[in-house]
Structure formats: C-alpha cells, structure tokens
Amino acid sequence: MESLPDILQNLVTGLATGSIYAIVAVGFTIIFSSTQVVNFAQGEFVMLGAMGVYMLTTWNWRHPEFAGLHWPLPVAVLLAAMLAAVVGLLLGWVLMRSLKSASAPALIIITIGASMLLQGVASQLWGKDAVPARAFTTAMPFDAPIRFHLPRALVGPDAYPVAIEWQQLWVVALTLLMMLGLALFFNRTLVGKAMRAVSANRHGAQLMGINVSHMVVGAFALSAALGAFAGATIAPITYGYYNMGTLIGLKGFAAAIVGGLGNFSGSVVAGLLLGITESLAVMIPGLSDYKDAVAFVILLAMLVISPNGLPALLRRGKEAA
Amino acid sequence: MKRSAFFSSTLCWALVGLVAIAVTPLLVHYDIEELKKPLLERQSYLLHVLSLISIYTILAVGLNLLMGYAGQVSLGHAAFYGLGAYTSAILTAGPSLAQHLSPLLALPIGIVLTAAVALLIGMPCLRLRGHYLAMATLGFGWIVYIVMRQWSNVTGGISGLTDIPKLAVGGLVFDSDVKWFYLTVVSAVLTMVLSANIIRSRVGRALRALHGSENAAATLGVNVAYYKVLVFVIAAALAAFAGSLYAHKVNFISPNSFGFLISVELVVMVVVGGMASVWGAVVGATTITLLFEWLADLGQEYPAFQDMNGVAYGLILVVVMVFLPAGLTVGTRDLLLRWFRRRRPVPVPQPAPREVTRV
Amino acid sequence: MSILLEAGKVRKIFGGLVAVNGASFTVRAEQITALIGPNGAGKTTMLNMISGVFPPTDGWIHLSRKPIHHLPPHKISARGIARTFQQVELFANMTVLENVMVGRHLRSRGNLFTAATRLGGANREERRTANDAMTYLEMVGLAEVAGEDAADLPFGRQRLLEIARALATEPYLLLLDEAASALSTREKKDLVELIFRIRQSGVTIFLVDHDMDLVMDISDHVIVLDHGEKIAEGTPAVVQRDERVIAAYLGEEPVGKSGE
Fold it and tell me: Is B69 on the interface with A (CB under 8 A)?
C-alpha cells in the first residue's frame, strides 16, 4: 500500500497532465463536431505552443543578429498561440477543400501528413533535443514548490511532504479559465453560436446564412490556439521537444473518445480522469514502465464496450436499472 | 466488358510501375560514393532495396485487401508486422528462452500466433465503424509497440534483438543478398497472385460488397462479421509472414521498425498507390520505399537535408491526398482515361413503350 | 393460397418512440401484398424487422410457420427473403454484373482456399455465377449494361438493378421498399409489368409504397398501418372504403380511384 503523500503527489501531477489532455480533447471535439474529421495534428498544436514560446524568448534563430528575441513571457505566449492559430487556419482551409472529394481514410491521412510535416519542420528549426522553458512565475515567493505535510495522525511521523509546483497550479488555473472562456464563447457570442449551429446541422446553418467554410476554418484556428496555450503552460514541466505532440495528441484523443466524441464536458472530465488514472497507475508495481499504454488500453476498452463514450455507458446503465 | 477495363488499366499501371523501376538505377547513380564501389557491391545494395520493396509489397497487399477492398481502416498494421518479426526472433534467438527453434519452424508459428491475436482483437473491434475502428487499431498498435519497448526481458527492450539466425531450408542457407532477393520477390509475386485470385472470387466479391454497403451485403446472405474478421486475419497473417522474413534477412530488429510511423507508412503505401487495385499496392510499396531510400541518400550527400524525412513525408501525404484522393494508380488511370477519351459511353436505350398487361 | 409470412403483435420501441405498436398480419404465397400508411406509420420499420436489420421489441414474425424475428439479415436471406432499399444501396464500387453476382453468394460455392489457389473448380464456379447473374439482368432488361459501373446508371435503372440483385438470391419472398418512388410514369409502367412477371415466376411480393394508384391496381392484399398500428387489412376494394383508412389519409393523398 503506497503512502498517502505519494498518492496525493501523483494526484496533483495527474491533475496537471489531465488538464492538458482535457484541452486537447476539447480541441478535437470542436473540430470533430463541425467537420466529422479526426484531427491527428491536434497534438502538434500543443508542440507549436511550447516551441513557439521558446522561439520567441530564448532561441537565437541561428543568426547572431537575432541573438535572443526575448519577448516578455505573456506576449510570447499570445504570439505563439496566434502562430498556431494561423497554422490551424491553413490546415482547416486545406481540409475544407478536400472534404467533398476525399474519403474518410484520405482525410485522416491528410491530418497525419500535416502532423508529420509540422514535426519535421520543428525538428529542422529547433533540433531534436528538449528545450528548456521558464516557468510562468519565478520570482519570490514562487521560486520553490509549495510544500506541506499531511497530518501526522494520517500518515505517521516519517512521511515526507507533498510538493506542488506553482506551474502545475498555473496549468489547472489556465485550463479552468479556458473552459470558462469557451463556455461563454459558445453560449453568449454570435460567432460561438454560429459554430454550434454548424456542428448541429451544417445545411441548416448554411440556409441561415452562416458561412460554413469560415466557421470550420475558425474552429481549426480556435482548437489550435487552445492547444498552443496548453503547450506553453505545460512546457516548463515536461520541457518542449519536437515530437511531444504525438503522445499528448493521442492521449487527448483517447480522452475525447471516453468522454464521447462531440461532448464538451465529457471531454474535460475524461481528460482529467485519464491524467489522474495514468499518474496513479504508475504506483502499481510492474506497471510504471507501461504508463503510456494505460491511455491506449482505456481507449480500446471504451471502444469495445461503448464507442460513444462514458456518457452513453452511464445512460445505458440508468436505463437498465 | 470488365476484361477490357482490366487490360487498359494494367497498361496504365505497368507504365507507372515502369517509371518507378526506371527510377531505381538513379538511386544507385545518385550516391557518388556508391559509384566508386566495385560493381558487385552496387548490385548488392540494389538487390537489398528490391528485397525490402518485396517485403513491403507483401504488407501492402494484405493491408490493401483490408482497406481497399473491404473498406476497413487500420492504423496499427505495423503491430502485426512486428508480432511476426518478434515471434520469429524470440523463438530463434530470444534471451528469455533456454532452447531455440529453427527459423523454418518459427516462421509458421509466428504467422499462426499473429493470426490468433488478430482474431482476438478483430472480433470485438470490427463491429466498429469508420474512424472508431481506425482509433481502435491505432490504440492496439501503440500497446504492442509499448510492450515491445518495455518488456525488456523477452523482447530486448529499446535495443531490440540481435544475432537472429539466418533462414535455412534443408541445406540451402539464405545468407546473401541474391538469395534474399529471389526469396522475397517470389514471395511477393505469390502474395499478389493469391490476392488477385481471392478478389476475383465469391469471397472477394463478398469483401467488396462490405465496402459498398454492409446493409445490402447482409441482406444478400453475406455474413458481414465473419468476412470482416476474415480479411483482418488474412492481412495480419501476411504481415506476420513479412515480419519473419524481415527478421531473418537483416538479423536484427528493434521496436522502431514497428511503431506508429510504420503503420502510417503502410497506410500511405496503400492509399497513395491506389486502393482496390493489387498493382496499387506494389506501386505504393515501391514508390514509398524508394522515396525513403532517396531521402536517406540525399541526407548523406547534403547534410542540410538530413532528417528531412518528416517534412518530405508529410508534404507528399498532404499533396497526394488533396489532389489525387483515389491514389496514384487509380487516380492516374482515371486522369489518363479522361484525357484519351477512352471512357466507354453509357448506353441508355429508351425502353419501347409497352402495354401494362393486367393479369 | 397458403400463408407464407405472418406477423404477430409486433412491437418496436426506439428509446421513447413507439414505431410499431402490436401489428399482426398475414402474407399469402404467390400474391402481391402491399403495406401502406401515412408518413411515419412504421412501414419501413416493419420491413426492417422482417429483413432482420433489427429485432422486434415484442411479438413474432414467422416464415412458413418458423420464427425468423431473432435472426440476423444474412440468415434471413438464407431462409429465402430478399429486399430492395428505399435509398438504393448498390455496390457503387462494382459493375452491374458484379452487383448481381453478389446476390448469388449463397447459391454458389467457394471458400478462401479455393479462391486463393484456384483449385476445386473455382474458375468454373465464377463462370457459372456470371451466367446465372446474367439471366437475372436479362429478366429486368439490364443485360446490355452489364459491364457498366453500377454508379453510372440512371436512377430508374439502379432500382431495376437492385431488384435483379435481390431476385438472384432465389427468394420465396421479395420485399420492395418504395420501389416506385421517384420514377417516371413510363418507368412505373415497366416496374408494374416486371412485378407481375416476378409473381408469375412463383415469388411472393410484399411491397411498401406511397403511390396509391399503383398499390391499388396491382395488389391482391393490402395492409394499412397508421401510427404503428394496423387499421385495416383486406382486398384493395375493401380497404379503400374503410372509414378509418380514409380518415388516416384525409389531408394526404386521395385513396385510389373514388367511387369504385
């Protein structure tokens, strides 16, 4: 039986990574609901966020004249998100064009191709090594993790403290902020509602005068920006590297499936659950090596049991009861 | 009728295939270092590449049956390739086994084992449609890959397995590029012939009917679930066969050869080559393998181009899929047919007005 | 005429929607029976249950006194029921002839081994299947386009192809789902003639359609559904005069020729 501080520690880590999965899952969902396309390049947007911030703050562009662009961090994050949005825009435009003529496997391959392209470009520009990323807040008192001891009565005298990095809090906080922003966007703004209309009924939306192409491309840009924010936030914890998007994208995708493809709140909950499960699974002896496989096993199990995700499974359970 | 179509398209594909083969000498000429080497070594490299192409052809033909004809998407096919390779390798050279088997015995065992895994995975997963199936196969592929990497005691972990013994049939030992060339090419041709035979049969029609409309196929007596699993298992068995050949040819395997990238590569071969056409699989396998060899050459010559694989790969994928979604062979054939106006006009004779006779 | 198909108190509920609510009727052999009713009456649902697309929530369906309502579609096909689809579901990736050849699936032999190795007379079997399929194409008048891609056919001929494909299974019972919809007058005349020829060859026909004139002209037996329940059953003349039927259709199409 693992000690409580360890469990708590892993819980916190899981919450942070789970938040990233949640954002990626939401990004998938936004694109899928408006185009029925599964975007394999979603993880790459996360990478663009992380590397973009690096590029704008520390990287010296291989030319001494540009020695370190050194934008302030918030500006760099915003610029990176905009850069990712542009890339997302391009991808969305290409996909819109091919939507009619290409079969489902062909569309999947286009997004896979885009993903490879982005990874290739990233490795050419920034190399294959991990790049350092500065935490959002490094001045005092944010330079050391929060340490606290659990009550002696629960864990005994020898227990060591639980340490929470400030960046982890940033991840969770920003995720909550983004979810709030999205909820407001989709429910209160005209553009957001238009996007929802396109997801619900494309032809109907067209008849209402909504420019579907613009909405779709916009959905891609939005997902990209979201992913980039996530990447910029997680980079100080995991470091940025050219193929960090692959696994993050796939796990985020697994979360999207578990939460029910097209279901926003489902994606968020599933993402968090996945992150926590993954982090806690590490504590089971013999399983720590196979940590990455956890998400895929859950994905497979969910697809076999209930392809429409947990919500559908729960509904079935309620009906049977 | 269908005969003329087959011939006219064979011509087109043969053309495309010829172009691909014509490019091959360029491979040799491009690398200046190679040209300096004596003729025998140059020939050996060429034979090696052709052997590799043949092995990929076997993989592509199997996947083509699954994706092109039966219309099921698989993004984890490299897992079966790897299962075949690793089974062969572990049984003949694995550190965890006290006794080892001969390669000739390990080969069929690998195929049967992989087919069994495919059956196990296929039965629940093939109920899924479209992208759900794609995701399930994707997840499966990753799980196999992670196990290959992490189960070090048995699979050798990240470093893989070395000193895999050479394949030997009786006194004949396959230890040279020439011998492997003949073995792999013959295997590939056999696979293509078998595949073409299957397609032009009752079973093949059932598979194609699945792709056309599962509902309609079922109402005509086709057991949809059975045939889906069948073609999945066939594709997996062929992949395992290719895997075993690969393991005994290069005598060293590592998880990197069987990861997601390879699964994608296989799908690209099938889709870019042209789905629903046996030649398409060959063209796809040839084109993509040559492309990668050429990129590797380029990388060695001009260091600036090193590791451009990803960029080139991604670019080609996107461009081909956007402009020729039906793939190179089928897409080019359609293009050519349209240019040469060889499209057979569709006769729509007006039926003569008849009295509706009442019984 | 003996009873070929019988439905007993068939119910189908989708989530909260009751599509069919306790319908019972009989279809007699070698007759033309029609299932009619206003939109949403449950006709296609009934057809789907007969052909095995999904099972009924309640009730039973018997073919020649043997229950079939629990069988999957391919087994129902083996028992001798074939169908066409309202939205034509051809195999667009095959030629006209190949479409019909799929219909011969259960009437031909060949497994994976014989297919791959061409041993055991596979080539002979292929020729036989092609020839058999050709006769069905000739029956519906599509013989000259056998080599065309199925997707290239004009809509009316695609309907005929579906019928030929269904007939190729040598069924006892042929289900026609809105086979006359979206056809021109001339095409409808040809279809009617074809249906009579099919009936003459010994096949029982069960059709669902909206065209009242057509249904009343050719049917021997009519079943009327409304909101999932059977409200009338009998000869066309009897059904046309039924008050409930007239009421159900009031505001929709007029019921056949008036003053019969």
Answer: no
